[in-house]
Every structure is written in structure tokens, then in C-alpha cells.
Amino acid sequence: MGGVSGKWRTACPLAGLLIASTAGAADLTLYTDDDYQGRSLGVVIDERELSVLNFDKRASSVVVERGAWLLCTGEDYSGQCVTLEPGRYASLQALGLDNAITSVRRRDAVSIGNFAGADEVVKNETHGADQLVLYAAKNYQGASHGLDRSQPDVRADALQGAATSMVIASGQWELCDNTYFRGQCVTLGPGKYPSLEAVGLMHGVSSARRSAEEPHRKERAPKN
Q1: Is residue 91 exposed (0-12), middle (13-18) or buried (19+ Cβ within 10 Å)?
Q2: How far apart are CA 198 and CA 20, in angstroms?
Q3: Nearest to 103 by CA among 57, 137, 150
Q4: Beta bridge partners of 168
Q5: Separation of alpha carbons 133 and 46, rounded Å
Q6: Pick from 128, 76, 139: which is nearest to 102 by CA?
Q7: What are phi and psi of 92, to 5 degrees?
Q8: Taking the domains of the chain in order of start, what are their residue ranges?
Q9: Cα(65)–Cα(189) distance, integer angstroms
Q10: Mind giving me the DSSP string for 104-162?
């Protein structure tokens, strides 16, 4: 799925900050009407079901400030999808997606943490072989838990609860606020993340997996 170009795209300045749900600071903004009118929804992290935000099949125009985004007609990034590069799109009808968008996600993983010394933090915490370290408290405090592979429930280990800060030494990871990769999820790259609330995970991280391991495949929790 290539990016849209030509007469449908007009370049616009890139946004700076990642602040949740405000149109002026969002990386992607959806509008209910053409020409960026009507109710708006600012997006900074992947949204598997826009219905949760009462914005399912409502978007008629879009502004992409930063990164490339996939806009899809089905939940969990299914159905017809189109990739939009940074720009202003005054009418989704021109793309055949007017009032049809149900889920949106970044095309590429994003690194929005502090890069400096991420690998050293991991080594200093005696997790030298791990690529991801989760912490029970903000600012890398409290119990820590290192990962070198996907784990559907990090709460069952040393953390005894959801992680609230994190360091990614290498790779790209999908982090979810519920177990078995459910709930709100975001894909992040290497960096130090002193507060997971800043990346939209208000309830912390309860499961984590490498994004290369079919990051958008649904997996079910075991039945009781």
C-alpha cells in the first residue's frame, strides 16, 4: 500500500509534540466534515477501534502532521486501507473512504523516548541480554523485569502489576495496557520512557511483544 501523492496531497509543516487527543498537537487529526470542518479527533497512537472514541465511520477530511498513517475501513486495521503521508486531505471522498474509517495506525514504529544511554540503562540493571526492561514505577523506579521475547502477561512476574516506565534497548515492540496484547496498544522503538502515560498508555503495560512477530494479529486470552 503506497502513499497517496499527486493532486490529493498538499505538504504541511510537521508537528512537534505528542500530546493526546488535542487536534492542534496530534500527529493525525480526523474531521467529520470536508475541508477540516466539524468535530475533530486528534490521534497520537494506534487506534484499533475508533468506535471506542465515538468516531467510527465519521471522518470526511484528514490532516497528517507527522509520520505515515494507515486508515482502514475495518477494525484492527482490516478491510480497505490507504496510506497517507504528511499533508492535508480536504476530502476522503476523493480516496473512496468518506465516512468509512474504522481504525488507524502508524505505518512505521515510532521512537518518542529519550534515546541517550538506553542500552547502558539496560546493562546497568543487569539485564544485559534483554532488549526491553519494564519498571513498576515511573522514572525507572521500583521492581524491574527484562524481556528478550514476547510475553502476554508481564504482571505475573516480578512487577506484580502493570509497568509504568520502560527502556527499549533495541528492536520495535508493541506494548498493550491489557494482557494478551489487548486493549490500548502502541508500537515503540529504542529509547527511554520515564512515564508510559506520555505515550498514551494511561494504565501502563501488561503485555509486550516484538512488532516483527505479527504485531497486528489478534490473539485470545486462554479461557478460564
Answers
A1: middle
A2: 8
A3: 57
A4: 132, 191
A5: 22
A6: 76
A7: -75, -10
A8: 6-106, 118-210
A9: 19
A10: EEESS-B--SB-TTHHHHHHHTT-TT-SEEEEEEGGGEEEEEEESS-BS-GGGTTTSS-
Q: What is the CATH number of domain 118-210?
A: 2.60.20.10
149 and 156 Cβ atoms separated by less than 8 Å: no
Sequence-separated (6 or more) residues with CB below 8 Å from residue 224: none
Q: Are 29 and 115 in contact (CB under 8 A)?
A: no
Alpha-carbon separation of residue 200 from 99, 112, 179 (angstroms): 25, 12, 16
- pLDDT tens, residue order, the chain (224 aa): 444 433 333 333 223 333 333 344 688 999 999 999 999 998 888 888 899 889 999 999 999 988 889 999 998 888 888 889 888 999 998 788 889 999 998 887 665 554 455 555 555 554 556 688 899 998 888 888 888 889 999 987 678 889 999 888 888 888 888 999 888 888 887 788 888 887 778 889 999 998 754 434 444 455 54
Contact 163, 137 (CB under 8 A): no
Amino acid letter at 113?
G
Same fold, 6-106 and 118-210: yes
Task: Please provide residue 125's backbone torsions phi and psi, each rounded to the nearest 5 degrees.
Answer: -90, 15
Residue owning grid cell 476522503: 92
Under CATH, which architecture does the 6-106 domain have?
Sandwich (2.60)
Say which amino acid occupies 144: S
Cell numbers describing residue 217: 494479529
